[in-house]
Structure formats: structure tokens, C-alpha cells
Design goal:
This protein is an alpha/beta fold and about 230 residues long. Helices cover about 40% and strands about 20% of the residues.
């Protein structure tokens, strides 16, 4: 049974989300502010976090930053909730490492579906192939344990970034369009846009590339999409 931490300062919304998740068989823990959320991430070790951005005290974006900066919690799957519909807020959330994003008011049924999708993505990332390791120019990927190292140092990647790296690295030199990447990494979830691909590629590069302006692993093919570097 997956454990979900729901963080929202509006108790009615937290209770509604929790009730529906519990009906679907999930265990649920609630928090109503950022400090409590961070404490419960450490103590409860949830499998996924549903995080409202507009929190009293420590805001949602700061909670996200702290979680991603801590090696013990950096890979925690995260869905952000916010009353802000501005595209900039969505991009900021994704750039900070959110795996998905929903704007209030939202459909609870759709939120539950997204929770299942993100959790499934995590599981798929652990089972992608019988081939367990990949190494290329200082980049080391252990597919079985979902560990990535660059020049011997661990790289902290979100579940989505991890699956994106796994997908591209399994076919070095092959170019994929944004739509193809969406299909293979996100599945048939039409609520994700191709802009999200660019955001996650940028985050992935920031974690594994020495120079984001001249990447050596994840390359842009102008006018089409992205590929992992050719291996000769």
C-alpha cells in the first residue's frame, strides 16, 4: 500500500483529497503547513507528496527545494497543487522538480489518476530492462537500483528525470521528438504538454552535465527533439 502525504493549508481540501485517496486503497498522512510537511517527509517516509504551493510560513516552493536538496528525499515523487493558473508558476514548479502539476479547482478523480500514473512511472523506472548498468564518459547508470553517478558523485534525480534518462540512454544516438518522449515517459496523459519535456530535459542536464550550454550526454536536435549522445 503506497503512502501519500497531502499538504494543504485548506483543511477541507486536504480532507477531501485524503478521503478519496483512502477510498482507492492508499494510506494517507496530512500536513497543513510547510514545516510540518518537511517533518513528516522525514518521519513518515511517504511514497508520494501532494503539495500545495500557497502555504503559511515555509511556502510550497521552498518545501520542494528543501526536499530536492536532501539526498535522502531528493527522489520523492511530487504533485504540486496551486490556485495560481499562471504558466510561469507551472514552469517554476516543474523546474524545481515537481513530477506533475494541478491548478485549483481540480477534479479529485483526475488527481487520483495522476497519483497512480506517477507511482506507476516510479515502478516502471525500476523495471525498465534486464540490462542493469550503463556507462559513458563519466556517467554511470545503475538501472536496477535507480542510481546515477557523474564522475563518481551521485546525481539526485526526480522519478520523471530518472525515467527520462533511462529512456534516452537505452537508445544512444536515436533522436526522439517531444511527442515520442511524452508517449514513452509520461504515457497517454494528455494533461502533460511538450513544454514539460523541455523543462525536465533542462533539469536533467543541470544534474548530470558539466556545461549545460555544451552538453555531452543529452543533446538537442534542432527542429526535431532530443537524443542521448552517439556511442562509437
Amino acid at each position: 500500500m503506497a503512502k501519500i502525504l497531502v499538504v494543504d493549508d485548506e483543511k477541507d481540501i486536504a480532507d477531501l483529497v485524503s478521503y478519496n485517496l483512502e477510498r482507492e486503497g492508499f494510506a494517507v498522512v496530512k500536513a497543513f503547513d510547510g514545516e510540518t510537511a518537511l517533518a513528516k517527509v522525514r518521519s513518515e517516509k511517504p511514497d508520494l507528496l501532494i503539495l500545495d504551493l500557497m502555504l503559511p510560513g515555509v511556502g510550497g516552493l521552498d518545501v520542494c527545494k528543501k526536499i530536492r536538496a536532501n539526498p535522502e528525499t531528493s527522489s520523492l515523487p511530487m504533485i504540486m497543487l496551486t490556485a495560481k493558473a499562471d504558466e510561469t508558476d507551472k514552469i517554476i514548479g516543474l523546474e524545481l522538480g515537481a513530477d506533475d502539476y494541478m491548478t485549483k479547482p481540480f477534479s479529485v478523480k483526475e488527481l487520483v489518476a495522476r497519483v497512480r500514473t506517477v507511482l506507476r512511472r516510479v515502478q516502471e523506472g525500476k523495471k525498465l530492462s534486464a540490462e542493469e548498468r550503463f556507462e559513458f564518459q563519466g556517467l554511470s547508470i545503475d538501472y536496477a537500483s535507480c542510481r546515477v553517478r557523474v564522475e563518481g558523485k551521485p546525481a539526485a534525480l526526480s522519478p520523471t528525470e530518472l525515467k527520462l534518462l533511462f529512456f534516452l540512454s537505452r537508445s544512444p544516438g536515436r533522436v526522439y521528438s517531444r511527442d515520442q518522449i511524452l508517449t514513452h515517459v509520461w504515457g497517454d496523459n494528455t494533461f502533460i504538454t511538450d513544454r514539460a519535456v523541455d523543462v525536465h530535459i533542462r533539469r536533467l542536464r543541470s544534474s548530470i552535465e558539466e556545461n549545460m550550454e555544451k552538453p555531452q550526454y543529452i543533446l538537442t536536435v534542432r527542429g526535431f527533439g532530443y537524443k542521448f549522445a552517439d556511442i562509437r
